[in-house]
Design brief:
single chain; alpha/beta; 6-stranded mixed β-sheet
Length: 157
């Protein structure tokens, strides 16, 4: 029997830091992830050259790794999705996420999109060369977690 689970997410665009903080929680499918990314790319404040800090420490992929390739191709078709001038730093917390992160790194590098994954916020911010404080980032992530902008139900495989 399949069980419904929630995927919640949100983001904050910080023009003063040329940074987008994106936090994701729960179980996600590739279709939901595409819809969520479209919301970010359509935001009036979105700038494709801003760096991304993506917190996936509490996210579970409900995606077969082989299905990630079409997801990346679909992302590539979205205006403003990729820009070699920006960097994307992902934060992850489990070995389960490692296969997905390695695959995404390989696929994004084919599109000349810098992407690295880290186990903690300070390392990610250092790689991004961002001046925002760790405390400020943690506060934003906690705010997104308690009051997400987006909520979807997803079926767990």
């Amino acid at each position: 029997m399949k069980k419904d689970q929630l995927f919640t997410a949100g983001y904050v665009i910080l023009p003063e830091h040329r940074l987008i903080i994106d936090a994701r929680f729960g179980c996600v499918s590739s279709d939901i992830l595409k819809d969520y990314m479209k919301c970010i790319f359509m935001d009036k404040q979105y700038d494709p050259t801003y760096d991304f800090l993506v917190d996936t420490r509490e996210m579970n992929f409900n995606i077969i790794v082989s299905d990630m390739h079409p997801y990346v191709l679909d992302l590539n078709k979205m205006e403003g999705a990729f820009c070699s001038k920006k960097k994307i730093a992902g934060i992850y917390s489990s070995i389960h996420q490692l296969a997905y992160t390695q695959f995404l790194q390989r696929e994004f590098s084919k599109l000349n999109q810098p992407l690295e994954f880290f186990f903690d916020i300070p390392s990610a911010l250092s790689w991004l060369s961002s001046s925002i404080s760790v405390d400020e980032v943690e506060g934003i992530i906690e705010s997104i977690k308690t009051k997400p902008q987006f909520i979807w139900k997803t079926e767990r495989l």
